[in-house]
Amino acid sequence: EERALDRGVCKSAFSYAAGYAMIRRTAEADLPRLRRYEIPIKRVARNLCLDPALIGAIMSQESRVGLLLDNGWDRARQKYGLMQISRQQVQPSVMWDSEEHINQCSNILVLSINEVRARHPTWTWDRQLR
Predict the structure, then answer these.
(1) pLDDT in tens, 5-28
(2) What is the C-alpha to C-alpha distance for residues 95 and 23, in angstroms, rounded to an integer?
(3) What is the number of helices (H) and of strands (E) in the chain?
(4) Closest Cα to residue 68, out of 82, 58, 87, 50?
(5) Which position among 1, 2, 62, 100 bears the catalytic label?
(6) pLDDT of residue 18
(7) How confident is the model at residue 16, as a pLDDT?
(8) Which residues is 86 bridged to in the sheet?
(9) pLDDT band at residue 96, thresholds of 50, 70 and 90?
(10) Of 24-33, 36-45, 102-111, where does mean pLDDT reach its minimum?
(11) What are the boundaries of the signal sequence (predicted)?
(12) CB 85 within 8 A of CB 105
C-alpha cells in the first residue's frame, strides 16, 4: 500500500512539473491569436490592476484563445467566451470575444481572487491564485 501511495505522490509531482511545461508550450502556440486581443487585454488589466499575462494565460488555457469555441461556446455549451464564463453568468448581449466580455470575466476573476485572499490571508499570492 505504501508503494502505491509513493507512486501516486511521484506521479502527482511529475504531473505538476509537466503541466507547467505544457501550459508554457500551449501559451506560446496561442500567441498569434492573443495578439489580436492585446489592446483590450491591456486596457482591462490596467483598469482592474491585473497582470495582462494572467488574463492571456486564462484565455489560452480555457479556450485556446477561441480556437476551441463554436460561436463563443465550449463543446458542452456550458461555458462562453475566451475566458469561459459559466452559462449562468453570461450576459446574452455581450459578444464572446469583445472587450466588454473580457472585462466581465476579469471582474469575476478579481472577485474570486479577493474571496480566496479573504479566506486565506496567510497564503502566498501564488497559492491564492492557484
Answers:
(1) 334 434 444 455 566 777 778 888
(2) 26
(3) 5, 2
(4) 82
(5) 62
(6) 63
(7) 53
(8) 79
(9) very high
(10) 24-33
(11) none
(12) yes
